[in-house]
Here is the input.
Amino acid sequence: MNTMINKIFSFFRRYKKLLRLIDRETTMKSVLKSVAGALVLSLFSIAIPVLVVVNMFIYTKLTFILSIFLVIIIMGWSFLYYFFYYRLLKSYHDKIKNINTLLPQLTESTMVATFFLVVGIVVLSIIF
Here is the structure.
């Protein structure tokens, strides 16, 4: 049990260290451009599947399954957003290309996806 806790602490130490390295190289302007670009790209990428699922709510017997599918799509959106965010951030700064951004990308998107999962479960349990 003690080794598992040590592994978790070392994981978050590496995560914080990578974030500090990334934050040293970035500027507010490049972060804002990356956030705006990632939002636009991820929303355009996810718009068609969401519109298809929303239009299928016409079938009343599939309402619960489609609601679950919407929660899964929204959880997947967080992974897509952070993928585009770090990709755009790497294109603005050459020094960040050498940093492995996979760990912060997966950690942050997992946290956001877990939040969306909890909110989705609460909303689905209230509705159904």
